[in-house]
């Protein structure tokens, strides 16, 4: 259930707003101080934040709005502002924090309800027929962790434009799904989406593959053939693993992107093209450019907007809904009902997932075939079981992490085990409550800026 946080010096004054939120299916929480608001935002990650700008405590408003701006909270939370008489100054404050809208309260309750209802509908995926890409930016992606909420927000912002996008991320993180989602949310969605793995194109056929050829262009060209650019006309061309493209072909691709024209092999004239480019790589782009695997001028052309997909190990509890979704797919296909045991889910939670979502999908497929009605620990691959299943309050720390990463995991695990009680967690960690708050704020800002 999506969560709404109401902030007011006198929370009771927002009772009508609470009723609207509850009617729309939000769980609702009210706070009256900046510290409570900051704590709840970092702990509960509400989908909606509603702030009453009126009241005697001007410091509450100023401090809270500064926090929202510095932490880029609007990237993952929809912010709505309210005031008895909205002013230009308040509107400017709203713009600064990234608020979705500002409402006159209580006279514009109906408009506020419509705005909340609209956002709620954006979060829902069409349940009829195949899975649909929807305005929330989730598309076929699964997960509600802070890094994924940030990714959905970025997708929603970049999709409507025609800007070239470079999607980076480790192998198996879902770069193609992100590209498909961007295409489906764009004005080009009614036109083709064409994907190609640049590393899989044979060198001798690469130019023909991209730009096509005319009849008789070379030995074996018995007829004309459309290239990928022509196949994607009006739509989106996804160039997967662009850093694997041969240097001479990168030069020709750059020319096409600069002139918006291409010339089929053997043709006498160029053809115009109207295609949006989305490219990807699992390599560090700066390293690829430095090593000469990717031309710098081509990088600047295809990476007008760069975005990174988080690896599965940074997505917290997302591994569980992902695993259950993959299992549900197999159950529907084979018309057999199976489920995970709690111990098996715990093993999936603590595994490092170097192969990311693709590895998880393969693990679930294997376990489905081996299990009876319930997937047990013994149905999982041996490499997931290097150690016996461990309790949820035990922290496994893979080798190769920095001390900062270890400290972060220890703090967050301790806080989780105490159900978010910061006073108890700080006492057990042997640090002050203020230090704990500072660490949590630091981790949150790193998540939002990554």
Features:
4 domains, 450 residues, five-stranded parallel sheet, Rossmann fold, alpha/beta, Helicase, Ruva Protein, domain 3
The tally of domains stands at 4
What strand line-up does the widest sheet have? 2-1-3-4-5
- Class of the largest domain in CATH? Alpha Beta
Compute the number of strand runs: 14
What is the count of helical runs? 18
Helix content range: 40-55%
CATH topology grouping of the largest domain? Rossmann fold
- Which architecture name of the largest domain does CATH use? 3-Layer(aba) Sandwich
Q: Compute the gyration radius: what is it?
A: 25 Å
Give start-end ranges of low-pLDDT stretches. 125-134, 387-393
Q: Cα distance, first to last residue?
A: 26 Å
Q: What is the percentage of strand-forming residues?
A: 5-15%
Shape: globular
Report the major sheet.
5 strands, parallel
What is the SS-derived class?
Answer: alpha/beta
CATH superfamily of the largest domain: P-loop containing nucleotide triphosphate hydrolases
Instruction: Give the integer mean of the pLDDT values.
Output: 84
Summarize the structure.
This protein has 450 residues and is α/β, with parallel strands linked by helices. The protein contains 18 helices and 14 strands. It has 4 domains: 3-123, Response regulator (Rossmann fold); 146-310, P-loop containing nucleotide triphosphate hydrolases (Rossmann fold), CATH 3.40.50.300; 313-385, Helicase, Ruva Protein, domain 3, CATH 1.10.8; 403-449, Orthogonal Bundle (Arc Repressor Mutant, subunit A).
């Amino acid at each position: 259930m999506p969560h709404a946080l109401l902030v007011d010096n006198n929370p009771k004054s927002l009772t009508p707003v609470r009723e609207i939120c509850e009617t729309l299916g939000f769980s609702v929480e009210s706070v009256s101080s900046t510290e409570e608001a900051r704590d709840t935002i970092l702990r509960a990650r509400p989908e909606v934040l509603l702030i009453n700008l009126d009241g005697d405590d001007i410091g509450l408003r100023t401090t809270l709005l500064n926090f929202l701006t510095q932490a880029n909270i609007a990237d993952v939370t929809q912010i709505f502002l309210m005031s008895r008489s909205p002013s230009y100054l308040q509107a400017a404050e709203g713009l600064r924090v990234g608020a979705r809208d500002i409402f006159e309260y209580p006279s514009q309750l109906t408009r506020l309800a419509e705005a909340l209802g609209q956002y709620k509908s954006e979060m829902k995926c069409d349940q009829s027929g195949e899975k649909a890409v929807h305005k929330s930016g989730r598309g076929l992606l699964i997960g509600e962790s802070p890094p994924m909420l940030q990714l959905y927000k970025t997708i929603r912002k970049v999709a409507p434009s025609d800007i070239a996008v470079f999607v980076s991320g480790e192998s198996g993180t879902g770069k193609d799904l992100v590209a498909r989602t961007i295409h489906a949310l764009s004005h080009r969605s009614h036109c083709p989406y064409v994907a190609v793995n640049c590393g899989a194109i044979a060198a001798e056929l690469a130019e023909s593959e991209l730009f096509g050829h005319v009849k008789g262009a070379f030995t074996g060209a018995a007829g004309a053939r459309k290239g990928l650019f022509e196949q994607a006309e009006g739509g989106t061309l996804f160039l997967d693993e662009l850093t694997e493209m041969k240097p001479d072909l990168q030069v020709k691709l750059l020319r096409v992107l600069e002139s918006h024209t291409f010339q089929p092999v053997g043709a006498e004239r160029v053809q115009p093209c109207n295609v949006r480019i989305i490219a990807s790589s699992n390599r560090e782009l700066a390293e690829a450019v430095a090593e000469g695997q990717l031309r710098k001028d081509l990088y600047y052309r295809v990476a007008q907007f760069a975005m990174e997909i988080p690896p599965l190990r940074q997505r917290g509890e997302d591994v569980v809904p992902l695993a259950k979704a993959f299992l549900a797919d197999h159950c529907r296909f084979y018309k057999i009902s199976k489920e995970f045991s709690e111990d098996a889910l715990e093993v999936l939670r603590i595994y490092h997932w170097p192969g990311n979502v693709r590895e998880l999908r393969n693990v679930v497929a294997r376990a489905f075939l081996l299990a009876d009605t319930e997937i047990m620990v013994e149905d999982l691959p041996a490499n997931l079981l290097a150690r016996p299943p461990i309790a949820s309050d035990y922290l496994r720390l893979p080798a190769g992490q920095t001390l900062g990463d270890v400290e972060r995991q220890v703090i967050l695990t301790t806080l989780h085990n105490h159900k978010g009680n910061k006073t108890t967690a700080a006492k057990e960690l042997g640090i002050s409550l203020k230090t704990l708050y500072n660490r949590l704020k630091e981790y949150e800002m790193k998540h939002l800026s990554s």
